[in-house]
Amino acid sequence: MRRRALLGAVGTSVTAGCLGDVLHLSRGESRFSIENDPVPADFPATLSARLLSDETAAHPPRIRIDFEYTGDEPRTVRFNYPGPFADTLAAGPDGSKLVLEYEAETSSRHDGCWWATPSTGRGAAEHRRFSSGDEAHVEWEVLTHEESDTCYPSGRYHFVDRYYVDGGTYEWGFQLRIR
């Protein structure tokens, strides 16, 4: 008897989770959300990522990464190019991938989805001098990698980048969740 009750509770819980996602989507809520990683201790800046817009027929989802220098003394920060965030590929469940691009070509949309082939050749660095309160940002469009089986597969995709200040190396990133 207990086993049936347990199995019924598990089934109800799983069904409720699935229905919860369906209900969120049917109310017009975004399939996309962002969870920021904590900023590393002793890193003299704040970092945050946020969703600017959802996917439409005219453009893919858009995100923005903001950097604000919070140190007391002016310092030079080295970013991977383009700063302040340059990691443009994230793997998700079942080998699916997402790609960040500056601006998608209209030809990137086919079969009802925004598709990308990641470019290579990055690896440049940029050095910027910041005083307290100085800011930088970058905006990206999110596309489905051409090797993915479906358009914007559900799951969590972790993007992470490195920052270099006064001989120290710091990592920060965010998770893009797709329901």
Automatic annotation (TrEMBL):
It comes from the Archaea. This is Lipoprotein. It comes from Haladaptatus paucihalophilus DX253. The lineage of its organism: Archaea, Methanobacteriati, Methanobacteriota, Stenosarchaea group, Halobacteria.
